[in-house]
Structure to design on (365 residues):
């Protein structure tokens, strides 16, 4: 199973060999784990990588319900889906993005951004569809009621594990995709912020708040990456960036509002106050203030970068307009000079043609 066209063979374990064959190497690890399910001696170990662990069966009005909580064994599941995400990324890159890149003939910098936007849209569109099914946005009080939210449904726990796997896979993809050095720092900040916030929501049992905030963030991200994809196909498509700018500011305001509502007021009035590691309760003043400070600093930093970008874009637009206005009145003057010279030459020619033979003879002498 080859994900990359092999135009040239490279020495084993060289840099180019790893970049060209990374998906095949990872795929062999996945096959090795799946083969372990076939044998009774290794099945229990292999299942740790594939299926979420720490399940608890409880009774509810609907019957028996299986819920999950987190533990150290989740790292094995995250590792397995980390491999799966790398393989899926290679498939999308090879059979979709590379084919579009060949038709568009993009530059190297635009090619990197196009690959980033294309892979992000393909993954986030699926995740946003899942987040709309939870319904926490319609009932904001459910974000802090019955805290701590230790027991999670299978879909919610699987979502968080795959999210951590997805953003962890983005780190080696910087190497596999040969991202330019100028872009690495920006993407590292972007990836680390996602990993920090998702891990905090998962480990502090703020899963409901995390789901809502991720839903809002992913909608904004989808708008930006879709607008950038349309811009790369046709540079006249710039109005979608204006729509994204409105959604970006709205997302920042909604995130801050929900965090103050859920953590600042909801959890502060909750009956379960104090630190209890066995029960998974982290509802203390220090932790609440730390979470609020982290989110506020992140949203303020994003807004600051957004405002600087928009101001720079506005200045460049004003500068282009000023240059065009200065160049506009000069063009008629040049055309007038050319017209006047043309008329003068035509007049001289007519005068010479209309002159008498004696005059022409005198001029020739």
């Amino acid at each position: 199973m080859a994900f990359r066209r092999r135009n040239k063979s490279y020495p084993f374990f060289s840099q180019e060999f790893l970049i060209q064959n990374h998906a095949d190497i990872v795929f062999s690890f996945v096959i090795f784990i799946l083969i372990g399910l076939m044998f009774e001696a290794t099945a229990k170990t292999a299942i740790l990588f594939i299926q979420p662990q720490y399940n608890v069966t409880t009774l509810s009005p609907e019957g028996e319900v299986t819920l999950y909580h987190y533990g150290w064994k989740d790292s094995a599941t995250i590792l397995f889906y980390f491999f799966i995400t790398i393989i899926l990324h290679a498939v999308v890159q090879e059979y979709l993005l590379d084919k579009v890149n060949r038709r568009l003939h993009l530059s190297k910098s635009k090619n990197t951004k196009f690959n980033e936007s294309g892979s992000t849209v393909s993954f986030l569109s699926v995740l946003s569809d899942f987040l709309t099914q939870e319904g926490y946005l319609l009932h904001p009080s459910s974000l802090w009621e019955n805290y701590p939210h230790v027991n999670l449904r299978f879909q919610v726990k699987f979502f968080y594990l795959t999210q951590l796997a997805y953003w962890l896979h983005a780190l080696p993809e910087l190497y596999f995709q040969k991202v330019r050095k100028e872009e690495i720092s920006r993407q590292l900040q972007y990836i680390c912020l996602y990993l920090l916030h998702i891990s905090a929501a998962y480990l502090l049992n703020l899963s409901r708040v995390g789901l809502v905030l991720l839903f809002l963030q992913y909608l904004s991200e989808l708008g930006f990456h879709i607008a950038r994809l349309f811009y790369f196909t046709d540079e006249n498509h710039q109005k979608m960036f204006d729509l994204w700018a409105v959604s970006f500011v709205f997302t920042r305001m909604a995130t801050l509002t929900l965090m103050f509502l859920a953590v600042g007021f909801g959890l502060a009035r909750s009956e379960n106050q104090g630190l209890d590691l066995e029960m998974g309760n982290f509802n203390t003043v220090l932790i609440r203030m730390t979470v609020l400070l982290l989110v506020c600093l992140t949203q303020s930093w994003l807004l600051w970068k957004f405002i600087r970008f928009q101001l720079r874009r506005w200045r460049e637009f004003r500068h282009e307009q000023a240059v065009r206005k200065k160049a506009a009145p000069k063009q008629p003057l040049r055309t007038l000079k050319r017209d006047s010279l043309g008329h003068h030459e035509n007049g001289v020619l007519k005068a010479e043609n209309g002159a008498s033979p004696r005059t022409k003879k005198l001029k020739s002498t």
Q: What stands out?
A: The chain has ten helices and four strands. The longest strand covers residues 55-60. Residues 97 and 115 are 6 Å apart (CA to CA). Confidence is low (pLDDT under 50) at residues 333-365.
